[in-house]
């Protein structure tokens, strides 16, 4: 079955290492300097998720560039969507995000600068490199006359770093109408690769209800929810559920010190590696907290799901093998990363299960979400070559 999928997805092109497309490689080299200029322009626009004006400025630049490339551009809820109509039969989609994790004024302490092979700046890897790569890949391919797609859709969303709560559904519904989705998050500088899975994200909330009483005069009349919450947190801290990981991270109880608290809450970070992980975790937690330590207290747990997990299908894994072969054309190795604890929009893109979805086509870099975020200059040409060749292969697939 896997061999059949491989042949269908890759058009049967599995006959050993192929020679590089020298014309495409030269075109990629010619795009390096323009891409760096685009990247600098984007990084110099601060666009933290809560900085709506900054994100809108990145959207303005991105929308203008897509229009200049010939796209019909739609802007809604801060999302930039560009559509190109081609002459082929396949529907391709590229995604990246415009927001960063940094607060306004970050460029003062973390300025854009170049140091040898590294270019530093807040959000330069995650994910302004993805935006720049998409724009210049399309420019390069169109300049060479490539239009082997029925539709090419580009989505730049404004809220990935805060869970894509506004844009996730849009990405999911659009991806369901496409054959391939390549998400352009960055990848590691130590070993460039493609990502085969990423965690889904959810929030667990534990609530304990008890009875208030005077802490000094009649403490035993009360039903202390702080004690019960502590007990329940301890007994669920190492809960083992396949496909779900829980870490309690916040807790609160009581309003004043001289009153037995009548209610208490805790919240936890949930990472999901299976589509039914949240449901299994919910059941396991509910069973665990059913018996109280403090009499007459009631504990409940609710799980709010956010970004779904991304799990590459067999067809997507076959596509990733093709990506390795393409990197081999230019004498570079490409790792196939099995997974990450972080979440990505590939989770939304793969939710319907219709498109072949792969993640991490962006530039190589490191230090994301930190003080010294950077991309490597020598990854630009290979990543341009990889994404453009993958798009060509996808467009030509049967």
Notable characteristics:
six-stranded mixed sheet; 11 helices
What does it look like?
This protein is an alpha/beta fold. The chain contains eleven helices and 21 strands. The strands form six sheets. Strands 1-2-6-3-7-19 form a six-stranded mixed sheet, sandwiched between helices. Helix 2 (22-43) crosses helix 11 and helix 5 crosses helix 11 (380-396). Residues 1-19 form the signal peptide.
- Per DSSP, the total helix count is 11
Low-confidence stretches: 1-16
* Percentage of residues in strands: 25-35%
> Helical proportion?
25-40%
Overall geometry: elongated
Widest sheet, order of strands: 1-2-6-3-7-19
Structural class: alpha/beta
The average pLDDT score comes to: 94
Largest sheet: 6 strands, mixed
N→C terminal distance: 16 Å
Domain Peptidase M20 dimerisation: 198-295
Cofactor: Zn(2+)
Protein name: M20/M25/M40 family metallo-hydrolase
Keywords: Hydrolase, Metal-binding, Signal, Zinc
